[in-house]
Amino acid sequence: MNKVFLIGRLTRDPELRYTSSNIPTASFSIAVNRNFTNQNGEREADFINIVVWRKQAENIKNYLTKGSQVAIDGRIQTRTYDAQDGSKRYVTEVVADNVQFLDSKGSNGNMGGGQSMSNPTPYDFEQPSPASAPNTTDVSSDPFADFGSSIEISDDELPF
Fold first, then answer.
1. Are the CB atoms for 11 and 47 separated by under 8 Å?
2. Digit-coded pLDDT (tens) for 81-91
């Protein structure tokens, strides 16, 4: 089984590219804190390269910037390529199946930290101020008074 779950912050802005068949792909790296401190009492981090494909890649480019916090669900992939000097290079990266935006909109000083509107949080919607709130009617007495006669339902009429 090859499954990875990570939570970290982007170390740079995402880079969006398109393949020759016009499929979007984004790459970025995240810093993931280790669960322990070193001998100096400092917490160290691992820097992990992430690759995302298709619509999710475009969303990441549009909504995330350096410093945005994300949760990644994906798999580890190792690939090789030949460098210009003829040597073989190995690259290990996480191919993300799902990227969850963890910052609330604008919490790290930019518009990119929030959820995309395809997966909104309560932070994405402004609450109306009392001055701009719509007029309401007091229905504290009987909110159903204007609906006519009552309807009675017994348990024997239910189909299950």
1. yes
2. 999 999 999 99
Closest CA to 21 of 48, 54, 43, 57: 54
Report the predicted TM-score, pTM, of the whole model to 2 decimal places: 0.63
Cβ proximity of 138 and 89 under 8 Å? no
Residue whose pair of structure tokens reads 């619509």 in the numeric block: 55
Phi, psi values for residue 75, rounded to 5°: -140, 155
**3-class DSSP state of 143:** coil
39-64: buried (b, 16+ CB within 10 Å) or exposed (e) per residue?
Answer: eeeeeeeeebebbbeeebbbbbbebb
What residue ranges define each of the domains in the chain, with the CATH number in brackets?
A: 4-118 (2.40.50.140)
pLDDT in tens, 33-92: 999 988 999 989 999 999 999 999 999 999 999 999 999 999 999 999 999 999 999 999
One-letter amino acid at 118 equals: S
**Is residue 48 classed as helix, strand or coil in its secondary structure?**
strand
105 and 92 Cβ atoms separated by less than 8 Å: no
| Strand 15-18 with 88-101, pairing | unpaired
